[in-house]
Amino acid sequence: MSTITLSKEQIHKGNLILVNREYGTQPASEEPLAPASDAAPEILLQRCAATLLNQLMQEIQGWHSIVPVSGWRSGEEQQQIWDNTLRESGLAFTEKYVAVPGHSEHQTGLAIDLGLKQEHIDFICPDFPDTGICRIFRQKAAKYGFILRYPAGKEKITGIGHEPWHFRYVGIPHAKIMEENELTLEEYMEFIRQYPHGAKAYRFQSGIQEIAVSFLSGRHCGCTFPDKADFPTLHVNTAPVSAVINLPDHHPYTVSGNNIDGFILTEWR
């Protein structure tokens, strides 16, 4: 058995953290950053996201026609973008397309803005149409763990206007689950709560391999679920929002905080 210990701080770390107007970014991530592309070494992403983005671009030969426009941003840069956009375009436009400093996905290193390669590229609203290579990218994105973060028709849920250029790395299989169920990240956080760890899991079939996804609340204290063949034993301590999970050695897994109140456990079985 493998034992993993989850702390309160880890709720705010991982590929699935929700960052929006309600839930802000935490202090700088410890995850290493890497260039989004060789042609733009100054535009950075978390290393795993950068690796998967380049694998996707290699499959579709995307870097011939698509350029990275904006990746990881410091808090200072996000504040400058907010201030400049507010001054140049007004409050309504700024609130629609620019996240409030401290509440921007770009500060996590998990978000990338992409645009068609052309002479002039609008930094705030780059051209990324639903045609040609951009459509192909969008169709392939979930396979590599990326979602279109701000789709049309979901503005009231995300709090941001439709941004066809803004993609967020959430990992595999979560991007495919969201795509198949037409869920934003906000909706996925609620969706996965239907599958509490130790009771049942959301089953996702990837080829011949089954992947189980479940939610672990960080607010539970003093609870122990019975040991079952399908589910590992869970012990939650009375220490502030911490948990210990015992997992079979032969089950690869990932754990991500949701940036709200708990964790999402993904097991490859």
Compose a concise summary of this entry.
This protein is α+β, with helices and mostly antiparallel strands and 269 residues long. It is built from seven helices and 13 strands.
Class from secondary-structure proportions: alpha+beta
Q: Tell me about the largest β-sheet.
A: 4 strands, antiparallel
Q: Helix coverage percent of residues?
A: 10-25%
Work out the radius of gyration. Answer: 19 Å
Estimate what percentage of residues fall within beta strands: 25-35%
Order of helices and strands: EEEHEHHEHEHEHHEEEEEE
The span between the termini is: 14 Å
The average pLDDT score comes to: 89
Strand order in the sheet with the most strands: 4-5-7-6
The total of helices stands at: 7
Low-confidence blocks of residues: 220-241
How many strands appear in the DSSP assignment?
13
Characterise this structure.
- The chain has 269 residues and is α+β, with helices and mostly antiparallel strands.
- It contains 7 helices and 13 strands.
- It has helices at residues 47-60, 75-89, 91-97, 132-140, 155-158, 174-181, 185-191, and strands at residues 2-6, 33-37, 40-46, 66-70, 111-116, 146-150, 163-169, 202-206, 209-217, 234-236, 243-247, 253-257, 262-268.
- A hairpin with a 2-residue loop joins strand 8 and strand 9.
- Helix 2 runs antiparallel to helix 3.
- It is globular, with a radius of gyration of 19 Å.
- Residues 220-241 have low confidence and may be disordered.
